[in-house]
Amino acid sequence: MKRNNFLGALISMPAVLIYSLFVIYPLISAFRFSLTDWDGIGEKKFIGLENYIQIFQSPELVASIKNSLLLIVFFSVFPIFFGLLLANFIVRIRTQRIRSITQVVLFFPQILPLAASGIAWSWMYAKNGLINQFLRAIGLEKIAQPWLAGFSTALPAVGIIGAWVLTGFCAVLLATGISKIDSSLYEAARIDGANWWNEFRNVTIPGLRQEISVLITVTTIAALSSFDIIYVTTLGGPGSSTLVPGISIYRLAFTQSAVGLASAFGILLMVIVLLAIVPIQFYSRRSDQ
Amino acid sequence: MITTLSEKIIGRTLLIIAVIFTVMPILSMFSASLEPADTTPLGLSWPKHPQWSNYKEAISGGHVVELMKSSIFIVLLVVPITLLFATMAGYAIGKMKIRGHSALFFFFLLGLTIPFESLIVPLYYQVDRLHLLNTQFAIVFPLIALFMPFSIFWMRAHFLRIPSEISEAAKVDGASEFQEFRRIHMPLAIPSVSALAVIIFIWTWNQFILGVVLIDDPLKRTVAGALTFFQGQYWISIPLISASALIIITPSLILFLIFQRKFISSLLQGAIKA
Q: How far is A277 from chain B (nearest CA, A)?
């Protein structure tokens, strides 16, 4: 047994080493930096929790947090809602071939780099892009505009990109979940005279609790760390209307040389993610029992 | 499930709308990519004189060959090393249950929810001190490390599912720990490892933020990170940006179409386990 412990420790070593060196160590550094005033080159000056206080006093950084919370609506709520609806119809497709083609198409945004989706959509939203072309075609020329450039339209526009990426993923995952639900539950519901809405509410949704809690977790993390899409579409603009924590951290550290503040924001983002997902995990674990 | 006619009509209509909504951005990009490079195209139009030469221009001007080489280089390092390290640690934690295995597992779990954004600043200075900044290794090491929590989680779950009777039988037959691993656990692990390989491949290939921060030269990043290069190079020409973005997504698209089942089931499993 002793020899086994040694052997086991030995084969765990590479993973422990690289993880300590490139995740745990930087994490500790981030925390250390976050307590200092540092421009990245000169002396680090210890200032305690000042950076954290400064985050909440800066309207721009507060906006960045608010935006990422608003994006949860687009990244989580829409995809899960529409995903449920679509999944419900996907499992009703009788022809196996059509069903699998539908799933493959809906799933495919998931394998694209988010940056590529961002580029595709910046073209959709452009002055001559498809969305405005469509609006002009149906006589709504008045509201045609460059969507990513407007202060009030940019954030929803970016959010829709997230919804586009995640809806199909949610639909396919939920469809797999539905097909695992005991079909006698559906028969019983039909005998009781349930219409599809009743059936959906009383059989499908309860049967998908685990899948739904997984999706809330995954999509919320995606919303809070939406660097890629924003970087290629708006870089946080116009103004700070689409600023999110990832972009703020990047700008603070690498264009404004506020490395301490950027690190503090990084730590704060980590805490926000934990605060968002721990209750979901806790709730879903408890209700499983 | 009995389906009435009205449900069928509503369902079909919704699914068709969803499918159109999903493919539209890509179709629109495709139609734009065939317009003359110096024009501003319309959202979706049938190109009268399709300019396939845009693709030629994007491949040479966009250094696509160089880019693919760089991406493949990074993937070939990250994927096998991640699989190897995670399988070994997962085996020690989930199968051998070495002393302190729960503590070790918890240590790795700590990293599971850290957003990459939170670590880019310290990683930048660390990689700089190691003189790796602007080389591919600047993202290879951090990526392997950042994939460790998920991958170990995944492999541990696999080894926990293997009934312990199997190893006991091997011990009775006098197999050493190594023989047991080599003859019994390696073949059994193939499906889990290959699913993990698909996930790690996609995550590496599509990795963006680490490349943008740690490697100045976009041509040394993975393809996703290189998209900014096209934006910089061709910002004035939508047809050329579209052509290059489409070229960039083609390899993963082809792989996806060939291995669609494996991809979908791996990524779904990945989500559930995470």
A: 9
Residue B208 and residue B171 share a domain: yes
B128 lies in the same domain as B28: no
Tens of pLDDT, residue by residue over A201-219, are 888 888 898 889 989 999 9
pLDDT of residue A252: 96
Q: Which of B124, B273, B106, B93 is nearest to B199 (CA)?
A: B273
Helix A59-72 × helix A154-179 angle, to 10°: 30
pTM, to two decimals: 0.91
Query: The domain containing residue B268 runs over which residues?
Result: 58-273
As to burial, measured by CB atoms within 10 angstroms (0-12 exposed, 13-18 middle, 19+ buried), residue A95 is: exposed
Report yes or no: B44 and B28 within 8 Å, Cβ to Cβ. Answer: yes
Query: What pLDDT does residue A190 have?
Result: 82
Distance from CA of A124 to the nearest CA of B (A): 6
State the count of interchain CB pairs (< 8 A) between A and B: 295
Q: Which domains does chain A have, with CATH numbers?
A: 25-288 (1.10.3720.10)
Q: Is the pLDDT of residue A265 over 60?
A: yes
Domain count, chain B: 2
Interchain CB distance below 8 Å, B88 and A130: no
Give the orientation angle of helix A209-224 with respect to helix B260-273, to 10 degrees.
90
For the residues A76-89, what does the mean pLDDT come to?
94
* CA separation for the pair A237, B222 (Å, rounded): 26
